[in-house]
């Protein structure tokens, strides 16, 4: 059995990009692997958070994990800050990372753009992510495309420690889905769909009601050509919508293109509205059933115990290999 690890930041507005790039894979993988899914609250404080909102969002993500189909009987679900090994290992890895490799991270460059001085946590963020992954001897990391560079860095750090200190870490592999790996913003298909974009119609959040889903899709940016054809370079808007259609319906891009030949964007968008509404309905229902329950908190408590036991073993090995303690 392979070990799978991934995480989502509890920053609100979890959207269909997060679902199609990551959460959908989380569910697919849980039958044949040992899966550990984390709510990475320590990552979210790399930018300022309202403490009360943060706690709310942590439970929201936990409930969404379960609402999309992650089964706590099969997978471990827990909150990152409940297991101290993440922060601890992160420091040890920080001492085995270089400022040069961190400054090449495109996410850091994007997030620190226009700031005179960026928080140090934003800079070292990928090291904490590497710690998350390496702490559990993870083999597979299901994520969206935007995390590719961070996974590469994690592999580099693991290989470096294995070669220069002692064989300590499993070197993980990223796992990316074809259709959902990079869902673009509906209002601007040149940038990725994001939780923090100001325009709410740039994304479809997993808890959006049917009216909002319809509005966001119907007003999504396309082009003036009117032909439903997959060409991300020349036709990024409609290509992004076709990707979403394909990821939700399971139909290939070629089949979608064929079945909409001669039809207009309006017809295509109307059908896509129906597909997305239908996919979101059970998620919302499940979310509402679990979100306010004690059971949800109990699952996180148990998850932290299980994750903590694995992390403790790794930390013992790490400390021994590095010569820490006595
Ligand atoms: P986060 O919280 O930004 O996003 C959660 C997951 O959603 C994917 N994703 C997307 N996929 C497709 N299209 C999009 N527009 C889109 N936007 C986001 C992300 O790739 C991610 O898989 N650093 C991570 C969280 C993290 C993590 C980890 C992941 C922390 N430690 C260890 C894996 C392993 C992040 O900020 O994800």
TrEMBL record:
Give the motif span ('KMSKS' region): 192-196
Source taxon at top rank: Bacteria
**Gene Ontology CC entries for this record:** cytosol
* Matching Pfam families: tRNA-synt_1b
Detail which positions bind ATP: 9-11, 17-18, 144-146, 183, 192-196
**What keywords are assigned to this protein?**
Aminoacyl-tRNA synthetase, ATP-binding, Cytoplasm, Ligase, Nucleotide-binding, Protein biosynthesis
Q: Which NCBIfam families match?
A: trpS (TIGR00233)
Output this protein's name.
Tryptophan--tRNA ligase
Organism, by scientific name, is Candidatus Allocopromorpha excrementigallinarum
Q: What is the lineage of its organism?
A: Bacteria, Bacillati, Bacillota, Clostridia, Eubacteriales
């Amino acid at each position: 059995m392979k070990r799978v690890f991934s995480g989502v930041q509890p920053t609100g507005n979890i959207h269909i990009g997060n679902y199609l790039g990551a959460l959908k894979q989380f569910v697919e993988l849980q039958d044949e692997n040992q899966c550990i899914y984390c709510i990475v609250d320590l990552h979210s404080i790399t930018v300022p958070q309202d403490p009360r909102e943060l706690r709310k969002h942590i439970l929201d993500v936990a409930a969404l994990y379960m609402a999309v189909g992650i089964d706590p009987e099969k997978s471990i679900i827990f909150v990152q800050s409940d297991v101290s090994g993440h922060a601890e290992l992160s420091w040890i890895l920080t001492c085995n990372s270089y400022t040069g490799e961190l400054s090449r991270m495109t996410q850091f460059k994007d997030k620190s753009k226009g700031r005179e001085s960026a928080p140090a946590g934003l800079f070292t963020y990928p090291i904490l992510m590497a710690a998350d992954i390496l702490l559990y001897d993870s083999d597979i990391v299901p994520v969206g495309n935007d995390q590719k560079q961070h996974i590469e860095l994690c592999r580099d750090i693991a290989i470096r420690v294995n070669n220069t200190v002692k064989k300590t870490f499993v070197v993980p592999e990223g796992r990316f889905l074809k259709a959902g790996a990079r869902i673009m913003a509906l209002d601007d298909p040149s940038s990725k769909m994001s939780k923090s974009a100001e325009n709410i119609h740039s994304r479809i959040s997993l808890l959006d009601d049917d009216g909002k889903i319809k509005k966001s899709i119907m007003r999504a940016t396309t082009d003036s050509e009117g032909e439903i054809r997959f060409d991300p370079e020349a036709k990024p808007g409609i290509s992004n919508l076709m990707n979403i259609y394909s990821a939700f319906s399971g139909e290939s891009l070629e089949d979608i293109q064929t079945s909409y030949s001669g039809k207009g964007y309006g017809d295509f968008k109307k059908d896509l509205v129906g597909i997305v509404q239908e996919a979101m309905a059970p998620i919302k229902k499940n979310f509402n059933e679990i979100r306010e329950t004690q059971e949800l908190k109990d699952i996180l408590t148990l998850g932290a115990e299980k994750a903590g036991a694995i992390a403790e073993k790794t930390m013992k090995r790490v400390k021994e290999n590095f010569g820490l303690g006595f």
